[in-house]
Amino acid sequence: MKRLLIVAVALLGGILSAQAKLHVVTTTPDLASLTEAIGGNEVTVTCLGKPSEDPHYIQAKPSFIVALNRADVLVLVGMELEIGWLPALQKQTRNARIQTGGAGYVDASVGVTPLDLPSETVTRAMGDVHPLGNPHYLLDPEAGKIAARNIAAGLKRAAPDKAAVFEDALAKLLARIETAQAEAQKLLAPFRGAKVITYHRSFTYFVARYGMEVIAEIEPKPGIPPSPSHLVSVAKQMRQAGVKAILQEPWHERRTSDLLAKQTGAKVVVLPVQTGSDPAAKDYPATVKRLAEKVAAALP
Question: Less CB within 10 Å around the terminal CB: N or C of the chain?
């Protein structure tokens, strides 16, 4: 009787294990959206960053350690975007799966062609410059598709028996991103060649995809507040180039952008650069389209 009970418990444990969902932790809402679309009912996703939170400076919480200890998969933006806070959290966990190079470690940037690669040795005097290139590649839907494929590969490593499910969901997601990208291209086609300024150097991939040009940034160097003389220079450049839009993320202060807008006649466009930071940006494909809608509405 005891042996039968042991066998029954073992069988039940096997069934429960087969039915258990993968625990996935992502660093940003965009990655959470992609993971949920691919993983569906086979995953539970915990996102460490909030839609309105600068992913460079996410404030670590004790709950993050709990989530990371339970995680089967960790998905990060990569290109050292999270270098200031994620490695310390990884070290505090006892979870070998999500350490760099582990089976559950997914760097979503693998295969993305980096832009803004430094041509010289990076120092702190250069501001918040990333040695591996600009990490804001998810503003380009083509790079978003690469990230989605990397996530699918990570989920398949963690649950190979669900590989077909993940592949089917990935194909559907890629089709949705393609549709959103085509709609964005149509919206922004009339503005190819348009010159804009940005607050932070976040929009390199976005303007490259849609044929625009960033002529200046409000920050003189990434992460460095502007001086009065720098703002005078930026305003002069805006007038000379006929800039009509100032693009910025929701976590930067508006005062400086509003001042430049008043001086030059441009519009300040606070963009939903992460899924969930706008009611219409409910998932990654919707965010791709919403970004284009807001920029197109601001340009003449």
Answer: N
The pLDDT tens digits of the residues spanning 277-297 come to 999 999 999 999 999 999 999
Q: Looking at this protein, which amino acid is placed at residue 267?
A: K
Question: What tokens appear for 260 in the block?
Answer: 């430049």
Please state, in angstroms and rounded to a whole number, the distance separating the CA atoms of residues 40 and 35.
Answer: 8
Report the C-alpha gap between 259 and 238 in whole angstroms.
Answer: 13
CB-CB contact of 224 with 217 (8 Å): no
Task: Please give the helix or strand (H or E) that residue 177 lies within, else none.
Answer: helix 163-188
Separation of alpha carbons 293 and 34, rounded Å: 21
Per-residue pLDDT tens for 144-167? Answer: 999 999 999 999 999 999 999 999
- Partnered with residue 2 across adjacent β-strands are none
- Structure confidence by residue, pLDDT tens digits, 65-93: 999 999 999 999 999 999 999 999 999 99
Residues of CATH 3.40.50.1980 domain(s) within the chain?
20-116+124-182, 189-298
Q: Residue 9's pLDDT is what? A: 37
Domain spanning 20-116+124-182: CATH superfamily: Nitrogenase molybdenum iron protein domain (3.40.50.1980)
The CATH number of the structural domain formed by 189-298 is 3.40.50.1980
As given in the structure block, the two tokens for residue 278 are: 């706008």
Spatial contact of 201 and 116, defined as CB atoms under 8 Å apart? yes
The Cα-based distances of 12 to 5, 16, 42, 141 in angstroms read 10, 6, 19, 43
SS3 content of the chain, % helix, strand, coil (to 5): 50, 10, 35
Length of the chain: 300
Residue 102 has pLDDT above 70, yes or no: yes
